[in-house]
Amino acid sequence: MANLSVKKVEVCRVAPKPGSPENQSLPLTFFDLFWLRFQPVERLYFYQTSSTDSVLSKLKTSLSLTLQHFLPLAGNLTWPQDSLKPVVSYVQGDAVSLTVAESDVDFDHLINSIFLAAQDFSPLVPQLDVTDERAAAMALQITVYPNRGFSIGTTMHHAILDGKTWTSFVKAWAHICKYEEAQALPSSLVPFYDRKVVKDPAGLGELYSSQHQNKDGRTDNRSLSIDSICKDRKAPGREDSIRGTFEFTRTFIQTLRAHVTSKMASDSSLHLSTFSLVSAYTWVCMVKAEEIKGEKTALLIGADSRSRLEPPIPATYFGNCIVGRVAVAETKRLLGEDGLVVAVNAITEAVRSLEKGLLDGAENWVSKFLDFSLYGRTYSIAGSHRFEVYDTDFGWRRPKRVEVISIDKTGAISLSDSKNGGGGVEVGLVLKKQYMEAFDALFASLVH
Fold it and tell me: What's the pTM value of the predicted model, to 2 decimals?
């Protein structure tokens, strides 16, 4: 299905409901500035319904109502000459770009296939408008498959919000759409905007701004163009690559936990969370499938730090609040008989380092992010099963499929809850065909 047929019907702009505040401005914090020039995050939701006639009107109306709670998402990111830091701002007249499209593609194939060509979903997510001077906060696309269903493609600027905030916005939109355009949101979905709660005694915000400005030997580089810090990573690209989705059922996760426990020393205390086990198993399968030769392999993980900061900040804080850590292991040990235990141990060390010093080394996060040359392969995790994306109900029940599309550009491993529920986890990958086939065989057989 490499030539997915999608017809663009219109590109419109949806503004916050009339009567919303006229403007809102938020300076970026150091948590945001880390992501300033990263690749936008693209996510795609599929919904099944035999009655698609009213879909567009309901989604557009509820989007306008939702934006009155999320004004910055209708705005833009700029870096004014008189501002030390970039600013995301909404002014009256700003609006979200919404592409409306139709497709007669086999909808069942899109929602049910475990493997698809990497580029199959690309026409279903919109491009984010980004220039040197201005970047849109987000862009949306609704594609209707007449009498079968629809998809919602979302693209967001990572310097404005993280995955937790983004999924809260989409769930708020779904809530207002489902409950007949109710304008009130449950407290768990009301964004908290006060940037003063993010303390920065070390001046990391000013440091990061200066480092961005001095990039490429310049002294006033205020460009907002995407220049991913991860450009040196080995992303698979779309040509001849396969997108695959793998499910860790709760039973399988319990099997992995029992397997690792049986191999542990009596005095060890590994972090055997669902995240650790799923990430470790995927990491080992990837290293084996790609036949990595380097001495060491790394896995980048991100942790939501709203509850970890001192003092903690509200769970509904709008923006970024992610702290990264690097799990490192010897490749030959990952390839060995106890590779899963080795991987869990490395992830345990990385996670526990968060407790010792959340912002240790933060002064180097932008200037010296990671020396990829030290590792035979560097993997990263995008998303979280804790976002519970499959609970996003616009009134047409749970989505039939949710995918992080942008992993074909970043090479990341995506995590989400399972569409089948039951405490399971879905892992998304984009790999060259031969590596995907090897990963598929390993996933099914490495641990029973």
Answer: 0.95
